[in-house]
Structure formats: structure tokens, C-alpha cells
């Protein structure tokens, strides 16, 4: 609607009429409307949604009418109804302006005092094709046969259909100009559907004439409307969805159906049969038995939801009723299907994903708070409760809302508010479509002031105080969209809350059975337990119970979208009860929507986090957004380490110091795991953060134990001690379920006997292990020194000289391999570095590892593959020891280090990922091979971490397809709802990596 700016006309008064076209004054003089007698006409013209557009159409009509203009002018001067209809119509729709300019005499259609009945509309369109009734195969007059069947029938039917549509549109927009009655939304939708029914009937008459010529119709064929037409809530411009049923479903029936679609699509609207069984790949026409067999065996939940709106509209009426009677019972049993909940949730998410992000705020139909939100919610409630309540067996959205309110499934006020917002949004949709008779649901851009002003006027809005029409439109759109968003959650959950606690004196209450049924349909596997949690939450005394009642509708909706709503609701109850004395908790959820939504996602996704959050509740406050993004991402590993060491360093008692370190670790684990579940951190960031906090806890614990020992001895420590990280700790690649593999090394201070130094160091190491390994509700802190020389049979601590002697004389290939990940992590830094210098010649041997040692490494790996995989584990999906899993990648990288690190210092690295980068840099492997290994390592690590987050305990085995795998896939960041795709991707990635491993590690 945007027009280049033009100068305002110089003729006085014309600008005040909203006419900006330079030719407007001349046109009004030519009409004879430049005198006082024409003021009512000018006033009415000024109130058209776009006065210039209306004037342009009138100018075109006058030119075509010639002498006939006088009759129209007289009718306009004498009749306010015609004036309102014509000016509003041509000021709202350029397409109807073109229609009247092409056939200006059609203005007389607007003289009809009221809308025709459905029978009158059908008779008019049948008359357009000269159709006469004709008995069907069973002798009943189920068909008409057109007397006009040539190509000209399309134009004739289009003209008559457009005239009928024009009359409805004129009556619909007339209140914009004069004080004409407003057509209710329900009336508009029903008349549009009646008009579509008539068009389908006339198109079928043409199809009968074309396919059967002068022969009797051999097939019983019925046309079943679906979607908005079936519900009698059609738009001005919409596809008409249909399904065909025939007896027999032979080639003649198929030709009739195809010909009918062609005629109706060419003359009136697109006819779409894609909702039929098997969609576009299925037969266009089926028998009733074939339809029944399909819906019994193969139909998905969305197909039953679509059948909610079915309605026979043309052809054999008796066959149509037989179809309805056979299939409707299946519709009302759909909510009992085992896949009902995931199907419904997946369908809703697919619909949301169809809307581009940049259009979501302008999308009337699919945007958040749009028409589809209302329709989806209403249909779901119908499916849930319709089996036991026939009053809900209605196809229309407004009808269904009324029935749901009458049955107590939604509050009456909520139903009335939702109906009001739904009808307002549909009104805007209708006006947008009328403009050019194009199918659209997109609001004008915010900077298109003229288009928004036009839309506001066409929707019967007026300036309000300081707001012009465009401002009023913006305000109303925001108000109604916000109300739909609010009521969308309330519609499902407010009645549930009312069923467990009296919230208002006039509140309607669901029965316990209905409440349980509704919770089950919303994704809760144990609805009775969920009702118990709701009773406990709402039953809190005083203000807390009231806040819970206010919060829960939205919280429950967010929980319903998580992998495990039941566990999430239980966790929320536990967290609420644990934080009962924390006055900030409920206030934070009430005032910070991001905090509440993120908390529900975390609680409904992870069994690892609830206990951590109860013991580190301040983490919940970090779910808020700060000026630089989510607060969860603010702390850096170095800052966390500094804070943890400072906190533990305030205590001389090692128990208190370690308890403080544990507390700070708990907070950091809760922060990192929360950010991970919410998709804010990638795999390397998670590994670095977990490794950093582990190292800080080790350092703090070691310092505390040494301080206590020195205080008890009254003398300095007899030895320096360092902790060497091994395995994933040494590579700074810890996961949630990883232990801390370490070596303890000591060095006697001057004048101290080695035996004294070693005994003291062993006592220190044992105390650290004991304090960190003490029972706790937190994730365990196991310090494992099993990789030391001679394994668990050897001394826990050795001197630096003893390590040097052992590795020079006795080191086995597997021990050398283990040293590749040795890195100083805690204790005396200088001693740790000296240890690394001692082992460098061992782990990076001059000339590379011998062929015999390489064979030994390969033999050990083969033994690990055959013996260490747990009984019953699937080698294809075991993230650690499975094919292409973590062990395969890490052993391959380490073997290449043993063979080539003496030549390439870049390979002197304890991180698998960084070493892979170095391998690519020096050209030891092709970039594609490195990419496959890197992708497999990241994929397996991400899956392994997700397993711990979901299950709450260490696990390496991906589950079989089912709810647990779906939860793991979601936490691992898989973007689609189909967990089998996540599993297929894992298998594909690891299979390709395994081929590289076999070639490189196996030496092929």
C-alpha cells in the first residue's frame, strides 16, 4: 500500500477528506460532488479505509458506465446502505475494484438487503452452469449435471462466485463508512463456507457433464470438506481441503474428482486433496472400507486431529454421512493412542518452525500468540475430553470454546476472552486477504505507516485520544497477542489447578478423571502423581500458595515441552520445598520470565541438576540475562579457580576447607551443567570448565591438608609434593562422569631423609583422597591413582628420582602411552615441571616408539576391545569403548604421538582435540580424516555428557529408541524432535571415524 509522497491538493477541503491524489478535485467536479448537496457522499468517501483507492475505482466505473452513471449516482445519494457497502468495499480491496471496473453494472448486486441463504447461494451457482438435478446410481438425486461444460464455464462460474463474494465483503466492511450492522465473525465464516460448498457442488456438476456426457453417473461419489471449510470458518482466500470417497472407487470416480478439482480451482479457489490417506502419494479416491482400514492401521495423530473438522459438502450425501459415522468414533479415541502426546508436541513444534524468525512478530496465523495457538489448544482439549462428552463434538473453534466452557473444561471468562481475541485476529486476517484477494497472514511492516493505517480503518478501528488509527491497531494487536499467549497456557492448566484447590468462588472444576486425562494428554506419564504435586504446591500457606497458583499454568506449559515433565514437576516441588525460606525464589520466577522458563527446561531435562540446585540455589538467579548476555556465562575458569582457592584458604581445618571447596565446586557444577542443558556451552567449553574446577578443588584440598600437617608438626613440610593429572584430567577434557586420574610425586627437602619424606607425602595424599571421596549428595570426587607405577600394588607416592629410575628401566608400553596425558595440575609447580621434564624422553622417545612396542599397544587395544566392553553393551553405541568411540579416537591419536612426536614438537600436547589440530598442521593425516576423528570425538563426548545429565549418574551406553534416547538427544543439542535421527547421526559419524581408526591405528 506504500505510495510515493505527493503534494497535498490546493483545492480547499479535499485534503481533509483524506484524498491526496492530484486528480481528486477534478474527479469530484466531474461527478457533480463539489456542491453542498454532495456532503453526505464526500463524508462517506472520507471514511473509506483508503479514500484515494475508492475514488480511483469510482472514476473507472464512471468511465465504463457512461450514461448508466446517473443511476448509480442517484442510488448512492438516496441509500446510505449502498453508499456504505460500495465505498468501504472499493476502499478496502483493489481486486474488487478491478471486478467492478470490468463489470460496473455488478454494483446492483450490493442492493440486496441481506445475505442469501446457503440454498440460495447454491441455486445461484448451479444456475451459472445451467445445472439440473440428476439421480445417482442409487436413484437418489445426489448430483447435478451442468448444461454448460465447455471452457466458457470457468468464466461464468468465476463471475457468479465473485459477485456472491463481493456482496459478503461489502456487508462485512460497510460499518467502516456508515453505521451499518457489524457482521459477526461466525456469520462471515459460515457464509464463506456455504459459498465454497455451492462452488464445489457446481464444479461437480460440470465434472459430471464432462466425464459422463449423457450417460448416467456410475459411481457414488461424496466430497468431504476438511480444515476451515469443514469447520464452516473459512477465510476469504484459502485453499479448500477435501477428501473423496466413492463406491466403487474406479477410474470414473477418480476422473470426476480430478475434473471437479480442476473446475473449482480454475474458477473459485484452490482445491487441495493432500489430507487424504497417504497424502499426495495416495489414491485420490478410495472406498469407504479402504478409508476405514487406513485409519485403523496407519493413520497418525495429526490425521485424526484433521478429521475433527470433516463435513460432507457435495455429491452423495448418504455416503458422506456413512463416512462420518464410520470415522468419528476413531477421532474421539485418538487421545488413547500411545504416541498421542509426542505426535501432538512434534506437530506443534513443526508448525512453529515454519515461521521465519524475522516474521514471527508479524505472523497472524503461526506466530506466538497467533491463530494457530488458539486452534491447536482448542482441538487438543476436544480430543482429550471428547470421548466422554458428546457436547464437544463440534468442528468450529468458537463453537468448541463455547462447549468447553459449558462443560467446565475451561473457565467461562477465559473462553470469552480467547474468543474475542481469536475473532479480532481473524478479522485482521480477513482484511489483509480482501485487499488483493491473496492468501496472506502477515501484518504490514512496522515502518509501513500507510498500510497499517489502512488496515486499522478496514478493521473498524478509530483514533483514540493521542493515538491515530495505526497506533490503535498496534496497541490492539499487542493486547490480543499477549492475551492469547497468556490464555494458551491458562486454558490447559488453570482448570487443572482449580480441580485441586478452590481458586475463585465461581470457578469451574474438572473432575479428577478429567484432570488426570488432561495431564496425560499434555505429556505427563503419571498424571495422578502430578495432581498430587499440584495440590502440595498450591496448598502452601498464604502468599506462597497464591504465587504458585499464578505461576503454575505457565510453568506447567514449559515443563510439558521438556523430555520428562513428570520428573520435572517433582523436581520443581522438591526445589520449592527446599527453598521454602528463600523469599527471593518465587519472586524471581514471577518477575523474570527467562529464569522461570530456563529452570523448567533444566528440571524437565536433567536428573543430574535438581540436587545441585537445591544445595546451590544461588545458581538459579544466574538463569537471568545480564547486560552482556546470560549470567550463566559470566564466570571464567580462571576466576572460578581464584575464588575457590581463596574461599578454602580461609580455613585452617582441612575438613572445613574441603567443605568450602566442595560447596564452591557444587555451585560451579550447577552453573556449567545448567548452561550445557540450555545449549549455551559447546563441548570444549564444558570440558575446560569441569577440568578447571576439579583442578582447583585438588589444589585447595592439598594446600589445606599441608597447612594442617605443618601446624600439627610445628615445622615446615619435609617434602615438596605435586599432583600430576593423567587421562582426561591431564588433557583438560573431563566430563561429568569422569574420575580424576592422578600421580603423586614428592621431593625431600634438604636435610630430610627420603623415607621420612615419602611417609609424610603418602599420609598427605591419603588424606586428600579420603576427604574428597567422603560420602556426599554431590557428584563424587574420586581421586584415582591407579595409573602409578606397579598400579595399585605400588606405593601411592614416589620421589622424583624413583619415578625416573622406574620409567627408565621398567616402563611398559601402556605406561608410556598413559604418560602422554600427564600434566602438572596441583601442588608445587616447579616440582611438577621437573617431573614432566623427566618423563618427556620416555613419552616422546628419540626415534619414535619401536615396532615391537607399537605391536604391543595394538595388542593391548584389541584386548581392551574384547574384554572391557560391559556384558550386554552394544559396541555400536557405547560412547567410550564402542566402534568409533572415545577410546578408538584417543588411542589412535596417542599412537601417532608415540610414533612421531620426536620429530614434531607440535604433538607434545595432552589434549586430544589440540593434538588432532597439530596432526593436521604437520600433515600426518589428510584434513578429511582429521575432521572425521574430531567430529566423532566431539559427538561421543557430547552424547556421554548428555547421558550423565539426563540420568544423573555416569553412563557410557546410548539407550535404545524411546523416551530416554529422546531426552539424551535433546540435551545433546539435537535440533529435530526425531531421536532416531540423532542415533543415526551418531552411528554414521562413528562408523566413518572407525574406518580411519582401522586404517591408521591398524597400520594398513
TrEMBL record:
Q: Domain (PII-uridylyltransferase/Glutamine-synthetase adenylyltransferase): give its ranges.
A: 346-492, 876-1000
Q: What does this protein do?
A: Involved in the regulation of glutamine synthetase GlnA, a key enzyme in the process to assimilate ammonia. When cellular nitrogen levels are high, the C-terminal adenylyl transferase (AT) inactivates GlnA by covalent transfer of an adenylyl group from ATP to specific tyrosine residue of GlnA, thus reducing its activity. Conversely, when nitrogen levels are low, the N-terminal adenylyl removase (AR) activates GlnA by removing the adenylyl group by phosphorolysis, increasing its activity.
Task: Report the InterPro entries cross-referenced here.
Answer: GlnE, GlnE_rpt_dom, NT_sf, PII_UdlTrfase/GS_AdlTrfase
Q: Which NCBIfam families match?
A: PRK14109.1 (NF010707)
Enzyme nomenclature, EC number: 2.7.7.89, 2.7.7.42
The UniProt annotation puts the region (Adenylyl removase) at 1-496
- Single Gene Ontology BP annotation: regulation of glutamine family amino acid metabolic process
Cofactor(s) recorded for this entry are: Mg(2+)
Key words, A-Z: ATP-binding, Magnesium, Multifunctional enzyme, Nucleotide-binding, Nucleotidyltransferase, Transferase
| Region annotation (Adenylyl transferase) ranges | 504-1004
The entry's protein name is Bifunctional glutamine synthetase adenylyltransferase/adenylyl-removing enzyme
GO annotation, cellular component aspect:
cytosol
Which molecular-function annotations from GO does this UniProt entry contain? [glutamate-ammonia-ligase] adenylyltransferase activity; [glutamine synthetase]-adenylyl-L-tyrosine phosphorylase activity; ATP binding; magnesium ion binding
Amino acid at each position: 500500500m506504500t505510495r510515493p509522497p505527493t503534494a497535498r491538493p490546493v483545492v480547499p477541503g479535499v485534503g481533509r477528506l483524506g484524498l491526496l491524489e492530484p486528480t481528486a478535485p477534478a474527479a469530484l467536479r466531474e461527478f457533480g460532488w463539489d456542491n453542498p448537496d454532495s456532503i453526505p457522499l464526500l463524508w462517506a468517501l472520507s471514511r473509506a479505509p483508503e479514500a484515494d483507492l475508492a475514488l480511483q475505482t469510482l472514476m473507472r466505473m464512471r468511465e465504463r458506465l457512461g450514461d448508466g452513471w446517473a443511476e448509480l449516482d442517484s442510488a448512492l445519494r438516496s441509500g446510505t446502505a449502498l453508499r456504505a457497502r460500495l465505498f468501504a468495499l472499493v476502499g478496502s480491496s483493489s481486486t474488487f475494484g478491478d471486478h467492478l471496473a470490468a463489470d460496473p453494472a455488478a454494483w446492483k448486486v450490493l442492493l440486496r438487503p441481506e445475505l442469501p441463504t446457503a440454498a440460495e447461494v447454491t441455486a445461484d451457482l448451479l444456475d451459472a452452469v445451467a445445472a439440473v438435478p440428476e439421480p445417482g446410481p442409487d436413484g437418489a438425486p445426489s448430483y447435478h449435471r451442468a448444461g454448460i461444460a465447455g471452457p466458457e464455464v470457468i468464466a461464468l462460474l468465476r463471475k457468479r462466485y465473485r459477485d456472491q463474494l463481493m456482496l459478503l465483503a461489502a456487508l462485512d466492511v460497510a460499518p467502516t463508512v456508515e453505521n451499518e450492522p457489524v457482521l459477526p465473525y461466525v456469520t462471515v465464516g459460515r457464509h464463506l463456507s456455504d459459498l465454497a460448498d455451492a462452488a464445489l457442488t457446481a464444479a461437480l456438476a460440470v465434472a459430471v457433464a464432462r466425464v459422463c456426457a449423457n450417460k448416467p453417473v456410475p459411481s457414488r461419489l461424496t466430497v468431504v470438506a476438511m480444515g476451515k471449510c469443514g469447520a464452516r470458518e473459512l477465510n476469504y482466500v484459502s485453499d479448500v481441503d477435501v477428501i473423496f470417497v466413492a463406491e466403487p472407487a474406479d477410474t470414473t470416480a477418480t476422473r470426476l474428482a480430478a475434473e471437479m478439482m480442476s473446475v473449482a480451482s480454475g474458477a473459485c479457489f484452490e482445491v487441495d486433496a493432500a489430507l487424504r490417506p497417504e497424502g499426495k502419494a495416495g489414491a485420490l479416491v478410495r472406498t469407504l472400507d479402504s478409508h476405514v482400514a487406513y485409519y485403523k492401521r496407519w493413520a497418525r495423530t495429526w490425521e485424526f486431529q484433521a478429521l475433527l473438522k470433516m463435513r460432507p459438502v457435495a455429491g452423495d450425501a448418504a455416503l458422506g454421512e456413512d463416512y462420518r459415522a464410520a470415522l468419528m468414533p476413531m477421532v474421539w479415541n485418538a487421545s488413547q493412542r500411545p504416541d498421542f502426546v509426542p505426535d501432538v508436541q512434534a506437530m506443534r513444534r513443526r508448525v512453529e518452525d515454519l515461521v521465519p524468525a524475522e516474521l514471527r512478530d508479524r505472523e497472524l496465523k503461526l506466530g506466538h500468540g497467533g491463530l494457530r495457538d488458539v486452534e491447536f489448544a482448542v482441538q487438543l482439549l476436544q480430543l482429550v475430553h471428547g470421548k466422554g462428552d458428546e457436547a464437544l463434538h463440534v468442528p468450529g473453534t468458537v463453537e468448541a470454546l463455547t462447549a468447553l466452557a459449558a462443560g467446565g473444561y475451561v473457565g467461562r471468562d477465559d473462553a470469552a476472552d480467547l474468543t474475542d481475541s481469536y475473532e479480532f485476529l481473524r478479522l485482521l486476517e480477513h482484511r489483509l486477504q480482501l485487499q488483493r484477494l491473496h492468501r496472506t497472514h502477515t501484518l504490514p511492516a512496522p515502518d509501513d505507516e500507510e498500510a497499517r493505517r489502512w488496515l486499522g480503518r478496514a478493521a473498524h478501528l478509530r483514533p483514540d485520544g493521542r493515538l491515530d488509527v495505526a497506533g490503535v491497531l498496534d496497541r490492539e494487536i499487542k493486547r490480543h497477542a499477549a492475551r492469547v499467549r497468556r490464555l494458551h497456557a491458562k486454558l490447559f492448566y488453570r482448570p487443572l489447578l482449580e480441580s485441586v484447590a478452590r481458586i475463585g468462588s465461581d470457578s469451574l472444576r474438572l473432575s479428577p478423571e478429567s484432570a488426570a486425562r488432561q495431564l496425560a494428554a499434555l505429556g505427563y506419564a503419571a498424571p495422578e502423581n502430578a495432581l498430587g504435586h499440584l495440590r502440595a504446591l498450591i496448598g502452601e500457606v498464604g502468599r506462597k500458595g497464591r504465587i504458585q497458583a499464578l505461576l503454575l499454568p505457565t510453568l506447567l506449559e514449559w515443563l510439558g515441552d521438556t523430555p520428562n515433565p513428570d520428573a520435572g514437576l517433582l523436581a520443581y516441588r522438591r526445589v520449592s520445598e527446599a527453598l521454602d525460606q528463600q523469599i527471593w525464589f518465587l519472586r524471581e520466577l514471577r518477575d523474570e520470565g527467562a529464569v522461570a522458563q530456563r529452570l523448567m527446561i533444566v528440571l524437565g531435562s536433567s536428573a543430574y541438576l535438581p540436587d545441585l540446585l537445591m544445595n546451590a540455589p544461588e545458581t538459579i538467579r544466574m538463569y537471568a540475562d545480564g547486560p552482556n548476555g546470560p549470567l550463566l556465562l559470566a564466570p571464567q575458569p580462571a576466576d572460578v579457580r581464584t575464588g575457590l582457592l581463596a574461599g578454602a584458604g580461609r580455613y585452617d581445618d582441612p575438613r572445613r576447607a574441603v567443605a568450602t571447596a566442595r560447596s564452591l565446586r557444587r555451585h560451579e557444577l550447577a552453573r556449567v551443567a545448567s548452561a550445557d542443558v540450555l545449549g549455551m556451552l559447546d563441548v570444549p567449553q564444558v570440558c575446560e570448565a569441569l577440568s578447571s574446577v576439579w583442578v582447583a578443588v585438588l589444589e585447595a584440598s592439598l594446600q589445606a591438608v599441608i597447612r594442617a600437617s605443618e601446624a600439627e608438626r610445628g615445622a615446615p613440610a619435609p617434602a615438596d609434593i605435586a599432583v600430576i593429572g593423567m587421562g582426561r584430567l591431564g588433557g583438560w577434557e573431563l566430563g561429568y562422569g569422569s574420575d580424576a586420574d592422578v600421580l603423586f610425586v614428592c621431593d625431600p627437602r634438604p636435610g630430610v631423609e627420603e623415607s621420612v619424606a615419602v611417609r609424610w607425602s603418602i599420609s598427605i595424599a591419603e588424606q586428600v583422597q579420603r576427604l574428597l571421596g567422603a560420602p556426599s549428595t554431590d557428584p563424587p570426587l574420586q581421586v584415582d591413582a591407579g595409573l602409578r607405577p606397579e598400579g595399585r600394588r605400588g606405593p601411592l607416592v614416589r620421589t622424583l628420582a624413583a619415578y625416573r629410575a622406574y620409567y627408565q628401566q621398567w616402563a611398559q608400553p601402556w605406561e608410556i602411552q598413559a604418560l602422554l596425558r600427564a600434566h602438572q595440575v596441583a601442588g608445587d609447580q616447579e616440582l611438577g615441571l621437573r617431573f614432566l621434564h623427566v618423563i618427556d624422553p620416555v613419552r616422546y622417545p628419540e626415534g619414535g616408539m619401536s615396532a615391537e612396542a607399537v605391536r604391543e599397544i595394538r595388542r593391548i587395544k584389541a584386548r581392551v576391545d574384547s574384554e572391557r566392553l560391559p556384558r550386554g553393551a552394544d559396541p555400536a553405541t557405547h560412547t567410550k569403548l564402542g566402534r568409533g568411540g572415545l577410546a578408538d579416537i584417543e588411542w589412535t591419536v596417542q599412537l601417532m604421538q608415540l610414533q612421531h612426536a620426536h620429530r614434531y614438537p607440535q604433538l607434545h600436547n595432552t589434549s586430544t582435540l589440540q593434538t588432532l589440530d597439530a596432526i593436521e598442521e604437520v600433515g600426518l593425516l589428510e584434513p578429511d580424516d582429521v575432521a572425521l576423528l574430531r567430529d566423532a570425538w566431539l559427538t561421543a563426548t557430547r552424547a556421554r555428557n548428555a547421558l550423565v545429565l539426563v540420568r544423573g549418574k555416569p553412563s557410557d551406553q546410548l539407550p535404545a529408541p524411546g523416551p530416554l534416547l529422546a531426552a539424551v538427544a535433546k540435551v545433546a543439542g539435537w535440533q529435530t524432535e526425531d531421536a532416531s535421527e540423532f542415533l543415526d547421526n551418531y552411528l554414521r559419524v562413528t562408523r566413518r571415524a572407525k574406518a580411519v581408526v582401522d586404517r591408521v591405528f591398524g597400520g594398513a
